[in-house]
Amino acid sequence: MTKISLLKCGDYNKSNPAVKETLRLLGGISNFVKPGEKILIKPNLLSPKDPEKAVTTHPKIVKAVIQLVKQAGATPVVGDSPGGAIRDIKNLWKVTGMEEICKEENVELINFEAAGSQEIDINDKNVKKAHFSNAVLNCDGIINLPKLKTHSLMLFTAGVKNLYGCIPGLMKVEYHKYASKNKEFADLLTNIYLFLKDKIRFTLIDGIYGMEGNGPSGGEVRKMGIIAASADTPVLDAYILDALNFDISKNFISQNLGISKKSIEGLEVIGNDIRDFNLENFKFPQTRALDYIPKSLVKTLGSFLWVKAKINKNKCAKCMLCVKSCPVKAIEVIGKKQYPHVSDSDCISCFCCHEVCPYKAVNFKKSFLAGLFIREN
Q: What is the pLDDT of residue 300?
């Protein structure tokens, strides 16, 4: 039977013992890591944001796991590949707190791009072969440390979505071009997970402070008090989604892997009761309201149901990350004031620009019909 450990923790200053207790409830770190192994600790390092913004995995969670891996007699290393257009990895390490904790623990921080990559056939119909960083391929095991957040394309980002960071740099942007729709990208994420499945020792979700609304970087911080862990990544994700009152039968990754409401009901959950947490009225991205439109209506009126990215010039700082991150070059700089502009006809609604924008300057433009289904939060 799949086990999930669930612990309530409302303060990152108390997260070290909480993380260690979460693993103890699953049998202890020695149940997952053996002496002499090289273990990659994979946080979510989407962009150079202060940890309190709830965009990235908190460094105190990472530090606790580093200490556990050392305790097991293994060698921990830490790494992730951020949003494709972010090139200053050292600044990202500093701002997110990873540099400081890795220095304190004398642990290597790996640049996934500099480590090189290999192209692997993952049996995906849209992305036949995917590049994986050698840092991922050459480790003995992976400990997956996602942040609990919403995602404007995928609805939700936790364990399975966090593994997309195993794809280095701009290749992540490139794959969005071939798998731009929600279902296509869910298939790609599923196949990446299946390729890495045997390497993943466990997933531990940092949900002490999470993000709701239009995540994964432009949403609102929400105190949730959750630390949750399991050896089964997609089941853990589905359990949390179900707890957030989302119908997991509508989640494509869960569908792909045969995870149902019945699967969730059969879990062994150890620790706190899910009802102890602040999860009521959780806000999902506005864009995903379209997922609830009947398929028959989508087939008939599909060309009139759309959401596109739109740049808010009042917030835009002209950093041009959106331009660099667009997989289909649908964003160009125009006008005397040189602001980026999204071409509606070229936009594929992957929302990479929304994901990487540091200033929350990428909003959503809706067709009239889509606007009837999507309401502002």
A: 60
pLDDT digits (tens, 9 = 90+) for 299-354: 565 566 788 999 999 999 999 999 999 999 999 998 777 999 999 999 998 999 99
Question: DSSP label at 284?
Answer: P
**pLDDT at 360 exceeding the cut of 80:** yes
Query: Distance (Å, rounded) from C-alpha 358 to C-alpha 369?
Result: 30
| pLDDT attached to residue 295 | 59
Question: What is the predicted pLDDT for the residue at 272?
Answer: 97
- Please tell me the predicted confidence (pLDDT) of residue 362: 94
Which tokens in the block code for residue 7? 């612990």
Rounded Cα gap, residues 240 and 282, in angstroms: 12
Is 205 in contact with 236 (CB distance < 8 Å)? Answer: yes
Query: What does the alpha-carbon distance between residue 240 and residue 234 come to, in Å, rounded to a whole number?
Result: 10
Residue spans of alpha helices (H) in the chain: 15-24, 59-71, 89-95, 98-105, 134-137, 159-162, 171-178, 182-196, 233-243, 252-256, 261-265, 295-301, 321-325, 352-356, 368-373
Q: What's the rounded Cα separation, in Å, for the pair 170 and 191?
A: 19
How crowded is residue 52: how many other Cβ atoms within 10 Å of its Cβ? 11
- Cα–Cα nearest to 372, from 250, 285, 286, 312: 286
Query: Sign of torsion, CA 22 23 26 27?
Result: negative
Look up the pTM and report it: 0.93
Provide the 8-state DSSP code for 213.
S
